[in-house]
Design a protein that fits this description.
Layout (H helix, E strand, L loop, with lengths): L1 E2 L7 E6 L5 E6 L14 E2 L11 E6 L3 E3 L5 E3 L3 E6 L6 E2 L3 E6 L2 E6 L3 E7 L4 E6 L2 E5 L5 E7 L2 E7 L1
Antiparallel strand pairs: 1-4, 2-3, 5-8, 6-7, 9-10, 10-11, 11-14, 12-13, 12-15, 15-16
């Protein structure tokens, strides 16, 4: 979770419940208000697994704010369609693809070829050996790796 400059004197507590629910509580020990009236207060980073891989729906419900007089303000529930721009670690039956410290890593059960494409469509074929494979110097950005009939999006940075 990343807190923005709109909440300089607030404490945040995050609790992940068993049913894929994240509860966020924020308060100000000095009873100060948020800075400004527009923009996010915080962002949550979501690590997508197979349930959210591709396009998933994130629902925000039960948002309540209160002022210094303890008067409640209720926000409308909302849903957002999440499009995945990077997946750190996806395992399929044939290959595992991720990046770490600027290196593309592919673990494969068998030797095969992988097609590596950037977002402009330029592509190169990688010779993948059975086991652990690493490629340095590919370049930062969003890449698509097509291997064993599956496509994987990875961010290399």
């Amino acid at each position: 979770m990343t807190v923005t400059s709109r909440v300089p004197d607030h404490t945040f507590r995050v609790n992940v419940l068993d049913d894929n629910t994240v509860r966020v509580l924020s308060y100000s020990p000095s009873n100060s208000t948020f800075n400004g009236n527009d923009g996010p207060l915080f962002t949550l980073d979501v690590k997508a697994d197979h349930d959210l891989w591709g396009n998933g729906v994130v629902t925000v419900t039960n948002v309540v704010f209160s002022d210094s007089n303890y008067l409640p303000y209720y926000a409308n529930d909302s849903q957002s369609l999440m499009t995945t721009t990077g997946v750190d670690d996806v395992t399929t039956g044939h290959a595992r693809v991720w990046s770490s410290n600027g290196t593309l890593i592919i673990e494969s059960a068998q030797a095969c070829e992988a097609l590596l494409s950037d977002m402009s469509g330029k592509a190169v074929t990688l010779a993948v050996q059975a086991g652990h494979n690493e490629w340095d110097g590919i370049g930062n950005g969003v890449w698509i790796v097509r291997i064993a009939g599956q496509s994987h999006k990875v961010i290399i940075k």
